[in-house]
Amino acid sequence: MKLNKKDLFYYCDKTLQFKKINLIKYSIITLSIITILLYSVLNNISPPKKDSVNLNDIESDVIVVNVKDTLDDFSEEKLIKLLKSLNIKYPHIVLAQAQLESGHYTSKIFLENHNLFGMKEARVRVHTSKGTQYNHAYYSNWRESVYDYAFYQCRYLSSLKTEEEYYTYLDKSYAEASNYVGLLKSMVEKQKLKEKFSN
Q: Most exposed: 46, 114, 154, 165, by fewest CB within 10 Å?
């Protein structure tokens, strides 16, 4: 490999080697994050609070691969805070998805792949996954799976206007279980998940 003084590298904990950073890929990810934030501003969605994730935090999580960001720092409260700060559409449904897809944060896909939503590695859209393991996308940390869901939502679900349209889309294009939407609706109602995003 021909090296250039401007090349950037990161240390991969799995292979114990330095790997070259694909600047084009991370430039596209950064542009997508900016697009999501601009979309929020242009649609009069309240901007993130000062103590929430800012663009610099997002860029450092995506670009600096050797971040010491483990499952030890995961909590549902932090997930809720991140969903709010990213202005995720219908966050109570997305929270129910995270609970269901991760087996209430106990599944192998969550614990080893840091994958909260059972996402597959994207092929035609911007994503934050590092590859595929156990037939699902894997990430450096749980936050990257939330960013990936945000990209997914922005690409495929941003034009949906109602919760029912959102559920219908999930039923047709996301769900693998036959009663997926019924389970989500039941979780949202029984756990009063909407109330977690009301303030």
A: 46
- Using CA atoms, how far apart are residues 114 and 154, in angstroms rounded to an integer? 21
98 found inside a domain: yes
Q: By three-state DSSP, how is residue 17 classified?
A: strand
Partnered with residue 19 across adjacent β-strands are: 10
Instruction: Give tens-digit pLDDT for 134-169.
Output: 999 999 999 999 999 999 999 999 899 999 999 999
DSSP notation for 28-46: HHHHHHHHHHHHHHHTTPP
Neighbouring CB atoms inside 10 A of 39's CB total: 13
Q: Count of CB atoms within 10 A of residue 115's CB? A: 29
* Three-state DSSP class for residue 9: strand
Q: Nearest 5°: phi and psi at 8? A: -115, 145
List the domain range (segments joined by +) for residue 142.
22-197
- Residue 23: other Cβ atoms inside 10 A: 12
Residue type, 119: M
